[in-house]
Design the sequence.
């Protein structure tokens, strides 16, 4: 996985992402959860992330792009092509702002019982038999160790470092770190053909913005309309289509390109989950934080390669349906999607193929939970953020029930 990457920040993907929050569909949906429960959690996740399909209604030519794609992909049994659901707030003056950790947290950091420890690394979950008692931490600047006592512990540190911390803590279910899933990614670009452009479409690239907008203030230029070709079981790919403010390659001299007429296409395919695709940890070597060094075993199966070939053919057709392709599609190196999943996957039973139960509680523990993309158990092609947050909602509500003193979740899971 040559393009594997991790980041250290408050908010995880919320610190750097495209804000795409599509819902999974068909066989992307986790079958370990009651569909009604998952629907409620998805709706709550959309509220927390401020998901909208109207952020780019003003984007030039977005209707033309979606109409061209719809002619090519829409079928009676598929979700239709349309605007990408994105985590973006539309202000009263029309300004667009990405959803980030501050939006999701709201007044959380102002509450007296909540503390955010910046510059602090968790080194180990402390336990007494099957129950966590807290977390061993270290101050990055000073190296001073410390202990945080807790009634329950939730580890949500991405698909690489969540299993790393659990491994370092001696919490090692058989599936820990296994079933690593990175969505193969194919990229292409095209210039929207004039036949799709409505008469009188502006050539001027200026887009009105309020006088209050300032560079770096968090506002988004509404040029880059984002469209969506949803996943379907009969075409197991997810398409993210972005209109760009500039071409990624030189254009023919004299070609007049309107705002939104250069279109970038990104197709994601499902990755076949296998236990041998994994992140594992070298106890003989440590990383910069003193944790076992991360190692990755990962390969594309014959089924994965066939899916990539099919997606490459399809994205070529999509680029041609839009207009003039800009070069040939290309496959990004493994790890490029940053949509890492599966390493602490959810499952219905403690049978060695999952790390946690449908509430996110780790098998063999009574109060240790996991969250993040790594909990997603199914092979998906769509952006995983909304699904991960929905699963987090389920975990948070289950944990709140337990901490309120009702029947323990370990009993509920076995009832």
Sequence:
């Amino acid at each position: 996985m040559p393009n594997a990457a991790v980041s250290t920040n408050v908010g995880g993907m919320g610190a750097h992402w495209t804000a795409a929050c599509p819902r999974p569909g068909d066989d992307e949906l986790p079958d370990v959860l009651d569909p009604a429960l998952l629907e409620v959690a998805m709706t709550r996740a959309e509220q927390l992330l401020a998901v909208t399909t109207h952020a780019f209604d003003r984007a030039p030519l977005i209707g033309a792009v979606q109409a061209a794609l719809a002619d090519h992909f829409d079928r009676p049994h598929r979700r239709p092509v349309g605007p990408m659901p994105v985590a973006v707030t539309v202000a009263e003056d029309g300004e667009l702002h990405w959803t980030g950790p501050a939006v999701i947290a709201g007044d959380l950091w102002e509450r007296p019982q909540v503390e955010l420890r910046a510059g602090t690394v968790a080194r180990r979950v402390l336990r007494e038999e099957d129950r966590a008692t807290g977390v061993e931490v270290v101050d990055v600047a000073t190296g001073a160790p410390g202990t945080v006592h807790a009634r329950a512990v939730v580890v949500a540190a991405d698909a690489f470092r969540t299993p790393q911390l659990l491994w370092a803590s001696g919490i090692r279910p058989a599936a820990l770190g296994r079933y690593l899933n990175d969505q193969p990614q194919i990229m292409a670009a095209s210039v929207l053909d004039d036949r799709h452009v409505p008469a009188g479409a502006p050539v001027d690239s200026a887009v009105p913005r309020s006088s209050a907008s300032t560079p770096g203030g968090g506002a988004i230029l509404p040029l880059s309309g984002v469209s969506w070709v949803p996943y379907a079981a009969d075409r197991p790919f997810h398409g993210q289509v972005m209109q760009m403010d500039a071409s990624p390659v030189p254009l023919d001299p004299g070609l007049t390109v309107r705002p939104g007429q250069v279109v970038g296409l990104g197709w994601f395919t499902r990755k076949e989950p296998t236990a041998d695709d994994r992140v594992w940890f070298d106890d003989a070597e440590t990383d910069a934080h003193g944790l076992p060094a991360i190692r990755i075993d990962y390969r594309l199966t014959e089924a994965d390669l066939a899916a990539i070939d099919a997606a490459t053919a399809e994205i070529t057709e999509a680029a041609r349906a839009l207009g003039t392709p800009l070069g040939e599609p290309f496959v990004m190196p493994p790890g490029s999607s940053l949509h890492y999943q599966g390493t602490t996957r959810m499952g219905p039973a403690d049978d060695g193929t999952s790390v946690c139960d449908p509430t996110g509680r780790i098998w063999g523990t009574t109060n240790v939970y996991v969250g993040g993309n790594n909990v997603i158990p199914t092979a998906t092609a769509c952006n995983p953020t909304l699904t991960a947050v929905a699963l987090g909602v389920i975990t948070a509500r289950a944990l709140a029930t337990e901490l309120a003193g009702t029947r323990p979740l370990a009993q509920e899971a076995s009832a």
Q: What stands out?
A: The chain has one domain: 16-109+151-197+220-249+256-414.
